[in-house]
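Human: I wish I could look at a protein chain and see how it folds. This is the protein in question:
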Amino acid sequence: MLSQLTYKEYLKVTIPFILSTATQPLLGAVNTAVMGHMSEAFYIAAVSLGVILFNNIYWLFGFLRVSTTSFSAQALGSESAKDKFLALARPLLIAIVISLIFLIIYPWIFKYYALLMKPESQVVELMKNYCDIIIWGAPFVLINYVTLGWLMGQMIIRYTMFMQISMNVLNIILSIVFVFIMDMNIQGVAYASLIAQIYGCIVGFIAIYKRGNLTIRNEYIQSLKTLQPFLAMMKVNVDLMFRTVCLLTINNLFAIAGASMGTVTLASNAIILEIIFIVVYFIDGMANGVSVFSGKAKGYKDINLLNSVLKISLRCLAVFIIFISVIMYITKSYFINMMTDLAVVANYANDYSIYLILHPICACVGLLLYGMYTGIGNTASIRNMMFVAVIFFYICQKILMSYLGNDGIWLTYNLTYLLESIILIFYLPSLKKYFN
């Protein structure tokens, strides 16, 4: 039985997760920066709204990765060839069905999304050019969730890192080539993402073939005809799916508020948000490490190990937040100006650059504790926290925006994440019941 976690053990697992997750917002930042160097702010607004639309779609089913990781890890522990196969096959079928539904209903999704967001007509046209291409990546994105989750559950860390990092690096390179060299404009960004998604899917299956040691038998395939395990798999993630819906609601309310203040505000907020996401994904990498060790602590029924995980992770988080706050304070204007050549957008974004420093401070503890709660399996507390947060965001934004304009939007966003951190700290004593 383990009772203490060392910094070396924590960082050995956490650093690969950080490197993998940090490339995702970097991809979004590069795409925004590529459009930011075009001739009009319409390009930034169109890409940001298109990205929000597909984040809405994909984040809603992010449970595919979480649940696949869980079932894959359980199969690894049981050393059951059948369970290992089904841990991959069942979520793959779910991913394929969901993605096919997306392809069918996409025209209606885009129509009502454009009506909801109410951007200017030029932005709608550019956004449609982007979305009409990127929608074909839906099957590959959801399948990638499954293959990535399965590889993580099997502890095939190197292939997990390679799959995520190489896919995002390829996307970045193709975006730059297609836009600046081949002059494909917004379609170039979309095709770059689509090609990278297909590439990631191929890499995932190659990794499974080479390292997965899968055994496929007819009796295993026949088991896929049983409906109950599929329903059980979906039920496991109800609370996590609710959290995602709440996050999407908050992000949509944030974007709608920015769009209502004009294209420049929408574009500027998108730039600030992309930079924030880079920092947040570093914290998410830490949270993934916390999730792994918290789950191990629960498996051992070792509350001392959990306390050790909490202590070490919070200390590492504090060092990171101090470091990144200093970096952001010194370089915030540089990062913003790097994202766009449009002076009006850059100047407006610089006026609100303080939130680049404020947001990680407000959100960091909540993001880290989210990893601990999900690792242990206490998703009910996550659900309750998000229910309170989304109501708080809606009310607070209505009040603060009317008095403070765009500052009100950003203050609401940061106060909401601070509230999430406070609520999860409040729930910490409830974790003891999982170790009785």
In short: DSSP finds 17 helices and no strands in the chain. The chain has two domains: 1-12+236-436, 38-225.
